[in-house]
Design a protein that fits this description.
By secondary structure, the chain is of the alpha+beta class. The chain is 35% helix and 18% strand. The chain contains 8 helices and 6 strands. A 6-stranded antiparallel sheet has the order 2-1-6-5-4-3, sandwiched between helices. It is globular and about 50 Å long.
Length: 278
C-alpha cells in the first residue's frame, strides 16, 4: 500500500511539472435532439434537446424524393428503374459505383440516384412538391450563385429542416395527408422498412449525414450531423420520431448509422421503452 501511494504521489508531481503528457481529448458525439410524437394527434411523447433548429436534411430527404418519384411515375417499383453508374456521377462511397434500383438507392443512400430522380422531375415539379409537402424552409434554390438546387438543395445547402419539422412532415405521410398517391406512400414504406423490432414496433426510417456551414458559407468539415427519422407502428398505434446528433470530429462509423442504432436501443428494444403519452 505504501509503495502504491509513493507511486501515485510521484505521478501527480510529474503531471504538475508537465513531464507526463495528459491523454488526448476524445471525440465526442452530442445528441442535439430526440423527439417522438403520436402520429395521429401530434402529442409529444418524448422531447430532449433543442428540436426547433434547422439544419440540412441530408439523406433523410430521400423519403420526400421517393414520394415524389413514385407519385410522378418516375419510380415504378422497388427494382425499377435500375440505372447504371456513369463516370461523373457523385461517387463519394465506392458502393455507389454500381447499377442502382430504388431498393439499393435507399439501402446504400446513393446520392446520384436521388439526383437522377429530381432531374427527371424538373425544377417546377420539384419545387411544387417541396412546397406542397411543407418541408422545412422549402428553399430549393441551392448554393448561392450556382443554380444547382435541383440536384444539391438538400446536401448542406439551401434546404433546411428542424427535427420538429421532420415530425410534421412524417405525420402527414403516416396520416395520408400529403398530396401524393397511396401507392407512392406504400412504395416509400416498402423502401424504408426496418421490420419489427424486439420491442414489437414495426419501424420505417432513413438515416442521413451532412456537414454544417460556417458563417462564410464554407463547409465545416469534421463535425457532421447525423440524422435518423421515421415512423413506427404497434398495436394500432403510430408514432413519428427524429434524432439528430453531431460529432466533434470524424469517426469511423457514419453519424447517421450511430443515430439510428442508438435510437433503436433507446426506443424500440424493449416493449415498454415508449410511454403512451407525456
Amino acid at each position: 500500500m505504501e509503495k502504491e501511494l509513493r507511486m501515485k504521489h510521484a505521478i501527480v508531481l510529474l503531471l504538475g511539472a508537465g513531464l507526463v503528457a495528459s491523454s488526448p481529448a476524445r471525440a465526442e458525439t452530442v445528441t442535439l435532439c430526440t423527439v417522438v410524437a403520436d402520429a395521429a394527434t401530434g402529442d409529444v411523447i418524448e422531447q430532449q434537446g433543442t428540436c426547433d433548429r434547422r439544419v440540412t436534411p441530408a439523406s433523410t430527404f430521400k423519403i420526400a424524393i421517393s414520394l415524389m418519384g413514385f407519385d410522378a411515375g418516375i419510380l415504378k417499383d422497388v427494382h425499377t428503374p435500375a440505372l447504371p453508374f456513369r463516370d461523373g456521377y457523385v461517387d463519394w462511397i465506392p458502393a455507389w459505383r454500381a447499377t442502382t434500383d430504388p431498393a439499393r438507392w435507399m439501402e446504400k443512400s446513393v446520392v446520384w440516384y436521388s439526383q437522377k430522380v429530381t432531374e427527371a422531375l424538373g425544377d417546377e415539379r420539384f419545387r411544387g412538391y417541396v412546397r406542397a409537402f411543407g418541408y422545412g424552409n422549402a428553399d430549393v434554390s441551392g448554393d448561392p450563385g450556382k443554380d444547382n438546387g435541383l440536384t444539391r438543395a438538400w446536401l448542406s445547402s439551401s434546404l433546411q429542416i428542424s427535427p420538429l419539422e421532420q415530425l410534421a412532415f412524417l405525420r402527414k405521410l403516416v396520416t395520408r395527408k400529403l398530396p401524393v398517391s397511396d401507392r407512392a406512400i406504400a412504395m416509400t414504406e416498402a423502401l424504408t422498412d426496418y421490420g419489427v423490432q424486439p420491442g414489437g414496433w414495426h419501424v420505417h426510417g432513413k438515416t442521413g449525414a451532412g456537414l454544417p456551414r460556417k458563417p462564410d458559407a464554407t463547409l465545416l468539415r469534421g463535425q457532421p450531423y447525423g440524422w435518423f427519422v421515421g415512423w413506427a407502428r404497434k398495436d394500432g398505434r403510430a408514432v413519428v420520431f427524429a434524432r439528430l446528433i453531431q460529432d466533434s470530429e470524424r469517426q469511423p462509423v457514419a453519424p447517421g448509422f450511430r443515430a439510428r442504432d442508438s435510437l433503436f436501443g433507446d426506443l424500440f428494444a424493449a416493449p415498454d421503452a415508449l410511454p403512451a403519452t407525456r
